[in-house]
Amino acid sequence: MTMAKLSITYNHDKEKYIFNKYRDAFEEHEGKSPNLNQPADKKKANKIAQELRQAWEPKEKEFIKNLNWFYDCEFKIDGWTGYLIRSRICPYSPDEKFFAISLDKPLSDQLLTIGHELFHQPFHFHWEEKCLEIFQDEQVVHCLKESLTELLNTPKFNLTDEIDPGWGDPCEEFIRHLIKKYHRENGPFKFKAFLQWIK
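The structure assignment produced for this chain is given below.
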């Protein structure tokens, strides 16, 4: 078996960087930023990172292959890192090729986070501008991007028994409903076909 290309690690300096970069989002969702003066327990963090790498590794190749099939693109996971952090929310940066994974969630939730955050990236790189041209509304495009992770609840993209519930935004929930309906009627589908169906 080949080694996974996604790096999964805990790095205290990177954790502090992520909290500083997305401070407003953390405070909005969690009320306050955690005290990061001290790093997380190193032994615990390394153990969690190792277990998550072992769980992700056999799934990576097929997941990325299916992601590229869905988006009709060639997204490469080389150089991407999942950083474990002490938070329930998990921001990401397409430009810096990283996303956060909650250190305190169970392994199944962490796998779902990997799938969720990776699902967004080909959209940013290959479809976001096109969708902005079509819908002329940034909020609609944001909802579309977030709703696509509904496909993590289907056999083709499933990584875990956990369900990706979304954020509960009415716009997103409506698009998730359309995705479920389209999937029931058509089975696995490509983004381009779904986009043509809804626009």
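Interim note for the steering committee: The chain has a mean pLDDT of 94. The chain is about 55% helix and 10% strand.
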